[in-house]
């Protein structure tokens, strides 16, 4: 298949383009590979993984704050389950050393968003301004912060 046809295929039938590109890579047939779209897809995949990581981290931090500072008995079990769910997802993503390192670089930035959301949800203004949890505590499936 020519390079031009492969590029047209990308626009008209994405899944067929994926199958075709995969076969070309497996055969080491690089001459007609649609490099521009392949690069774009790989970049998008990497960004998607980072977005997922930030999203799970945001939800985890928000729920840790709410669990610790807004101890509504009817919500405690729900928050514990949510905390566990987000940790499971983060553990899967941080098996990649690259994504684990990325987590460390965005932790404080994501915490600011989690703090804002926790304040809005609870109406409280007692939360720490900087992240009070270590990375080990954040990822530890057995860690729950003490009630304040």
Q: What this model shows, in words?
A:
The chain starts with a helix and ends in a 9-residue tail after the last helix. The chain has two domains: 1-33; 48-139. Helix 3 packs antiparallel against helix 4 (73-93) and helix 3 packs across helix 5. The protein contains six helices and no strands. The chain has 148 residues and is an all-alpha fold.
Relevant terms:
148 residues; mainly alpha; 2 domains
Tell me the layout of helices and strands.
Elements: H1 3-12, H2 14-26, H3 35-69, H4 73-93, H5 97-122, H6 135-139
Helix pairs in contact: 1-2, 3-4, 3-5
Quick structural gist:
The chain has 148 residues and is mainly alpha-helical. 74% of the residues lie in helices and 0% in strands. It has two domains: 1-33; 48-139.
Number of domains: 2
| Helix and strand run | HHHHHH
Helix content estimate: over 70%
- Residue stretches low in confidence (pLDDT < 50, at least 5 long) are none
Overall SS class: mainly alpha
Question: What count of helical segments does DSSP give?
Answer: 6
Beta-strand segment tally: 0
Content of β-strand: under 5%
Distance between the terminal alpha carbons, to the nearest Å? 65 Å
